[in-house]
Amino acid sequence: MPQKKATDQISETARVVMARGFAQGWSAKRIAEAVAESTGEQLAPRTVSRRAAEWRAEVERRKAVRERMSDLVAAMKAGDMDASEAIQALAMDELMGHPEGLTAADPIKVQSLSLAAEELRLKKRQLDIRERSVVVTEKKLQILESREERAIATLQDGKEEMTPEERMQKIREIYGLSN
Length: 179
Fold this sequence. Notes:
mainly alpha
């Protein structure tokens, strides 16, 4: 059970004054005086100093979490990581921060989350394969269109010195057909 603190009993206004003082880097004595001036509540500078240390630790923790999330988002945008890898990274990060959480976790839920992440990874892989297949099909179509244009040009070239058999042979060559 968390230990009760002297600042647990102060008003919301006093907390706002303290937080503003912490953010602006005021001394503990100045914050205690500002609280007394605005609310009439008395706080020992030593108590304010302890709360300031806790506040700084919480600000640093939040900053670290924001940086980790920014790194994950940047990695995903850069293509270095897919969604399932991001989920696994977040799970590992949470586990490292709270190792006792795994002992209290429902193993079925953990397994289902793992399976969901794997399913997501597989679906992304299928989409990547489909995209590559579309690219290959488009390239094949371009090759066929190019061959067709060359065959039409061969048929339409008005050279009389080429016999119909020679034209057919040329078209077969264009399409890669044997005689």
